[in-house]
Structures are given as C-alpha cells and as structure tokens.
C-alpha cells in the first residue's frame, strides 16, 4: 500500500524539485494554491512540496476521469485526499466551484490549475473562470500563485512513465479579488502573478 511518506518521497526523487517561497511562507491558514499545468504529476508534486502540517490540511482538485482509472491512481488520489472533479457532467448547483467550496469547508486549502487542461509548458494559458468564482464566494481565502518548471519534460504528454529531471516549484505572494475588479481583470492579474514567478526561473 502506498503511504503519504512513500508518495511524497517518490515525487521528490522523480522530479528533483527545489521549492522556493517568494514573499510568502508556508501556513496552515486556508488558501487556494493556483498553478500552471503541464503534467498529470503536477497535482502530486505541488502537494508534496508543502510541509507536512500544511499538506494534511490541503486537498488538490483533480480530474475524475484520469484519477479514477485503474487501481493505482484511485489509491494515490486517496492518499493525497484529492477532490475528484467530473469535468464532463457538470450539473446545476453542482459546479466544480460549488463542490470545492463544500469539500474544503472552513478547514482545508485547495490546489487548482486554472488553465483547465494541460499546456505545453512553453507559456501559461488563459485562466478559466473557476479561480474568480472561488475568490468571489470566499474572499477570506488567500490566493497563492505557484509556478512549476520542467514537469512537462519529466512526464511528457502521452507518456506513462516519468523521466527523472530537475524541476522547481515557486510559491508567490498572496493576492485577493479587489473591489470593483472584473472577472477578466482578475484572471489576467492572477495569470500574470504566475508568469512573474516563471520569469524568476529564467
């Protein structure tokens, strides 16, 4: 059986990831960690990069169609306490945002990937509206940008086995939805926060 210790150690060994905090620090307060997305391993890697006390209060949102297949993926998802989101059957009053807010309650933080699908890793795609509605419905949550570098080469699209390479994860300063800020303005500002962390890696 895979345990939390084995999962986090394996993720770190495979990625060789260095972890940086820029103008922020690990904290057990409720947060939304929002990151760029280039690999199915992103969700495990960001979760594993958090200190244990923070990790145990953080639930990644993950694609149900991927993490519920086979026998090993559902077990891994259970270890990191994932919220499996159905991206295909979205019902009224059961949107992904509603599900996440119900699941985190007043206790848990959440890891999300606002681009929706995976990108090539060459840039950060446009953000979908979920992050905006999370910020609007729960303005008390800190929103922490995260940039993951090099994961698209560790587990390229279409591949099953990862290739060990050095990668990095950078957590940035918190932001919040500002008064009067439109959805498009906020999503662009949030995307730029991730891009600024990307520039630090260049």
From TrEMBL:
It comes from Aeoliella straminimaris. GO terms for molecular function: 1-acylglycerol-3-phosphate O-acyltransferase activity. Keywords: Acyltransferase, Transferase. Pfam families: Acyltransferase (PF01553). InterPro entries: Plipid/glycerol_acylTrfase. This is 1-acyl-sn-glycerol-3-phosphate acyltransferase. One of its GO terms (biological process) is phosphatidic acid biosynthetic process. Residues 31-151 form the Phospholipid/glycerol acyltransferase domain.
